[in-house]
Write a structure and sequence with these properties.
The model has no long low-confidence stretch (mean pLDDT 94). The strands form 2 sheets. The chain has an 8-stranded mixed β-sheet with strand order 7-6-8-9-10-11-13-12. Strands 2-3-4-1-5 form a 5-stranded parallel β-sheet, with helices on both faces. 43% of the residues are buried. The chain has 2 domains: 6-143, P-loop containing nucleotide triphosphate hydrolases (Rossmann fold); 149-432, no CATH class. The chain is α/β, with parallel strands linked by helices. The chain has helices at 6-15, 32-43, 68-78, 100-112, 149-155, 160-172, 178-194, 198-207, 210-231, 237-245, 247-252, 270-282, 315-320, 325-332, 337-354, 394-403, and strands at 21-25, 46-51, 89-94, 116-121, 139-143, 286-292, 303-312, 359-364, 369-377, 380-386, 409-412, 417-418, 424-427. Helix 7 runs antiparallel to helix 14, helix 9 packs antiparallel against helix 10 and helix 10 (237-245) packs across helix 12 (270-282).
Length: 434
């Protein structure tokens, strides 16, 4: 059983006396159903799961009046073996995007308050089957992602004492012992090759066979393509899939990682394809990193919507777009050129995304200054450079002096250190821990 950080968030939700219904949202195949099932079985006397994709007829429970008493009565008739007890039952509405009325009903479950209700589903951000009355103000949200590197370490049996020491080294800006650092870089390369999809990670744990992992990854990628074909409008299906499958080329084969429509097809323009990018974004299939014209708070004020990088929501999906040879090079540490730099940049983006940060990047053609990532912490802009080796971060050095920035990070194939300019160098795997 893979240990997931989101389990603590679920416990905090239950402990909140003023809790509403909860929606666990995120991309498909990241383990939402599994986590909620384990949580319900371990923390409630009774657990009822209704999966609207697996059992479409269950929508009949919500076909009548949406009073809680009527819905509970309908549930008892349909599931006579379940004891729906006030305060002791968790009702889990999975794949809720398939039942418009169940989404609407969340408002009434929340107002009533006698039963704990968690809903989950993929593609909740798109207009497909939009609820007639979405329960704005009556639901809490948890955003869930694939496994991050820390969760991966838990999965392969690395103890909390070792992981806790990493936080100590980070807090004290103290160099990690060489043997530990070398082993962690090895684990990190394995994680990049495997990604954070629970099924892929579990396959690795069970078999230590990267070809088996590759098969799982490609099946998950096919599932994402199926979702695009099934849920996207007729106008967007082909365009969205073509845009998505070009990400490996956009991110790994080119020095400039800005999303370029011409890589989709010759002569392509934003006018034709930007709506497909928006659909992929709303469907939790990609996330964006927008360019900013200045390195100042608030970065949103300086962001350009027409100049961005697009990333897959998990490394599994990006690596699956390439053949098995990429995994071999990652694990054996024989990557070179644009692919190596692009992949490590994607890995850091993956870590920041899974920590919930909005990401931006900076590029100034006239000064030739560029920053890989900018995030905001406590109202402060934090610039980040990513190096596949340990070369100097000249743009970062120049900009932190100009802007009087307090904290600046360089993630590199190197140990922890601070240079004379105040730039904090961290190992690439530490992006998960900041």
């Amino acid at each position: 059983m893979l240990k997931r950080k989101v389990s603590e968030q679920l416990k905090n939700w239950v402990a909140n006396k003023n809790k509403k219904c909860l929606i666990v949202q995120g991309a498909r195949q990241i383990g939402k159903t599994y986590v909620v099932e384990r949580f319900g079985e371990e923390n409630y006397d009774e657990f009822l799961e209704i999966n609207f994709k697996q059992t479409p007829s269950a929508a009949e429970v919500f076909a009548g009046d949406l009073t809680v008493d009527d819905m509970v009565m309908a549930i008892r008739f349909r599931y006579p073996d379940k004891k729906i007890v006030e305060g002791k039952t968790l009702i889990f509405l999975d794949e809720i995007q398939e039942c418009e009325e169940a989404i609407t009903a969340l408002k009434f479950w929340a107002i009533d308050g006698r039963y704990d209700v968690i809903a989950s589903g993929s593609l909740l951000g798109i207009d497909y089957k939009r609820a007639s009355s979405y329960p704005v103000g009556y639901v809490d949200y948890i955003n869930m992602y694939g496994l991050d590197f820390e969760e991966f370490l838990w999965g392969i049996g690395i103890g909390d004492d070792i992981i806790g020491s990493l936080y100590d080294y980070l807090r004290e800006r103290k160099e990690i012992p060489g043997a530990i650092h070398t082993k962690l870089m090895e684990y990190y390369r394995h994680y990049i090759a495997i990604g954070g999809m629970p099924e892929a990670v579990q396959k690795y744990i069970d078999t230590r066979d990267f070809r088996e992992v590759d098969t799982v990854q490609k099946n998950i990628l096919m599932g994402y393509q199926y979702d695009i074909a099934h849920y996207a409008t007729a106008e967007e299906k082909v365009k969205a899939e073509k845009s998505y499958l070009t990400l490996a080329k956009q991110l790994l084969d080119k020095e400039n990682h800005k999303f370029q429509y011409k890589e989709i097809e010759s002569g392509a323009r934003a006018q034709k394809y930007y709506s497909s990018i928006e659909w992929l974004l709303k469907a939790d299939i990609i996330h964006l990193c927008k360019m900013v014209t200045d390195v100042k708070y608030d970065l949103d004020d300086y962001a350009r919507n027409d100049f961005f990088r697009a990333y897959t929501t998990d490394l599994s999906l990006l690596v699956a777009m390439k053949d098995f040879g990429l995994k071999q090079h990652i694990v054996e540490n024989t990557l070179a050129g644009n692919t190596k730099g692009g992949l490590y940049e994607c890995a850091v983006a993956d870590a920041l995304y899974k920590k919930g940060y909005s990401m931006f990047f900076y590029k100034n053609e006239s000064s030739k200054r560029e920053l890989d990532f900018l995030i905001q912490i406590d109202g402060q802009v934090v610039p980040i450079e990513v190096k596949s080796g340990n070369s100097r971060a000249n743009s970062l050095k120049s900009i932190i002096k100009r802007e009087e920035i307090k904290d600046a990070y360089k993630f590199a194939d190197a140990n922890i250190g601070i240079d004379d300019d105040g730039i904090i160098t961290l190992p690439l795997y530490m992006a998960t821990f900041i």
